[in-house]
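Possible race condition, two jobs.
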Amino acid sequence: MALREQSYLILLALSEGPLHGYGVIKAVRELSEERVRLGAGTLYGALDRLSGDGLMAVVKEEVVAGRHRRYYDLTGHGRAVLAEETARLARLAATAQRRLNLRPASEA
């Protein structure tokens, strides 16, 4: 299952454990080196899709300073899909390095 970049980054952000919405936004920004900035509408639409696909789920809800906060985490299926997509991207990057006659980053 190929993932859109935003979905991949959201799942990757959740790979270290549950996060609330703003935590996901911050993690995606960091993971993408400031290139991907999710707005609330985009984030929650993606979370709804990922949840509907069984890749992540709400694992905790609380009220903080009068605001409702939900925490999201990967499901086992989500972790497997994330691992498969990571392997696919690694193969693609290796192919690109060969075609461009580049040395892998680890050798540079």
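Job #2 (started ~2 s after job #1):
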Amino acid sequence: MLKTLKFWCGRTALLAVCLAASPQHLPAADESPTVFAAASLKNALDAVASDWQEKSGEKPVISYAATSALAKQIEQGAEADIFISADQAWMDYLAERNLIEPGSRFDLLSNQLVLIAPRGSALTATIGPGFPLSNLLGDGRLAIAGVDAVPAGRYGKAALESLGVWGEVKDKLAQAENVRAALRLVSRGEAPLGIVYASDAKADPNVRVLGTFPENSHPPIVYPAAKLKAATSSSTGAFLAYLRGPDAASRFEAHGFSVVPATP
């Protein structure tokens, strides 16, 4: 019995030595970048990522949510390589905490803010100072992203304040976790009106645009992108460069965004 045990122990030890000496053919690490991106980018960035996959063989992993939520997740240690924000403020938030790679930040896209209604709605509106938004809503609510933290909500609140109608509608809001959630409320007919980006309205055939908010009624809508300090994917730089290239620009423009020209 003891001899048999020694025999098998010897065989096990020999096998362990052989395995250690042999080349280990383990699967290669996934080099695809992980991207945290504002919810409003989904349709356009999915198309860009699909093109990138065809060219590079790598499929970026993209998580979409409210910019504010993503920034907080990054601050708390969520693993990602790239952050694309829907405003400058949340990118500044991460920069102040030394969480983005210095010199990697650039302005990628711009957008417009629009007032939408369900496709079959008979409502009309001319957006301007003192326009009768409260009357248009009636007993309904205005779908909007969270006005305290989410970029689209902040832009919307600023526009309504600038036009002098915030006080009339601030108690008639249906605040959503992100701009795409606000879009769905109008698309499903759960809210008679909503404030979203022009690109969001373009993405949903069940809504129509009643008007565009004047650009001077809110801060410029700009989407900065940057490499995160914790980035591990070797393809991070290449994907960021692709986002600034002509192929990606065509995709973004087709989905209702404007491309910010690259600075020399």
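The chain has two domains: 34-110+222-259, 113-217.
Logs attached separately.
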